[in-house]
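A.,

Following up on our hallway conversation. Structure tokens first:
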């Protein structure tokens, strides 16, 4: 029993730490594989492309509709519980958020968490502002080496995803795009292969990988794809 507020706070901290360790351990012991991250930090949040810090390191951008799980996947890749803010309410990420990541093997890059598209309840002014911001970033950023396009494995490819892939190919020619078919834990394992195949058929020539931010499944394969993108010489 806590004797005072300080004791109560410290007991709460212990309970939270235990819960955190439980989640991390479950993920690590269960499905999460791939490189160990030795440094992960928030670098900057920019409301416009022009206000981003100078591009000095390779960048990999994460795009997808609101609530698909971009920030959650970033946390799994960075092995941090909540470095990127996540929420059940769509429209959580409202600016370009840049993170630095380095693995024990020496892979280092910036991850850029983009605001989600397709959230109907966002004000018209914000939607009008974000389209050009995402497109401006994807078309102009000189250190951009790869795009991760997230789709819900249950939902597959829709008009917006097709348009985004076409936009990037038009702006940059051949460019490394990896589709992260996420929330894989919500699809029974017997149905996963067919769902992945449907996405591959919809976007021929684009690499499609299944992942789950809950179990960490697919993390190792994902890193291999990112490392390949990071080495690409694709400049605007
Ligand atoms: N079951 C399951 N839930 C997930 C997964 N990834 C994300 N979620 C949940 O989906 C919701 C949205 O996740 P976010 O990571 O905030 O999504 P986002 O794409 O960054 O959303 P915006 O910033 O609003 O565009 C949260 O409630 C997450 O816990 C996953 O792989 N499996
Ligand atoms: Mg987000």
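Then the amino acids I'd put at each of the 236 positions:
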């Amino acid at each position: 029993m806590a004797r005072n507020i300080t004791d109560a706070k410290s007991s709460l901290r212990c309970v939270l730490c235990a819960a955190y360790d439980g989640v991390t351990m479950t993920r690590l012991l269960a499905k999460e594989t791939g490189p160990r991250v030795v440094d992960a930090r928030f670098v900057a949040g920019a409301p416009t492309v022009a206000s981003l810090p100078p591009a000095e390191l390779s960048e990999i951008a994460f795009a997808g509709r609101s609530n698909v799980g971009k920030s959650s996947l970033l946390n799994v890749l960075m092995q941090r519980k909540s470095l990127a803010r996540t929420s059940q309410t769509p429209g959580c990420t409202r600016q370009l958020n840049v993170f630095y990541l380095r693995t024990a093997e020496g892979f280092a890059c910036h991850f850029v968490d983009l605001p989600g598209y397709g959230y109907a309840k966002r004000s018209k002014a914000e939607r009008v502002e974000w389209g050009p911001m995402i497109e401006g970033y994807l078309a102009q950023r000189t250190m951009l080496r790869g795009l991760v396009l997230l789709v819900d494995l249950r939902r597959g490819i829709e008009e917006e995803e097709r348009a985004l892939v076409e936009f990037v190919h038009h702006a940059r020619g051949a460019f490394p795009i990896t589709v992260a078919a996420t929330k894989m834990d919500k699809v029974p394992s017997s149905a996963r292969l067919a769902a992945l195949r449907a996405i591959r058929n919809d976007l021929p020539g684009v690499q499609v990988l299944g992942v789950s931010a809950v179990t960490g499944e697919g993390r190792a394969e994902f890193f291999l794809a990112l490392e390949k993108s990071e080495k690409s010489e694709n400049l605007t």
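Residues 64, 66-72, 86-88, 90-93, 116, 182-183, 185-186, 212-214 surround guanosine-5'-triphosphate (ligand 1) (CB under 6 Å). Curious whether your intuition agrees with the design.

B.
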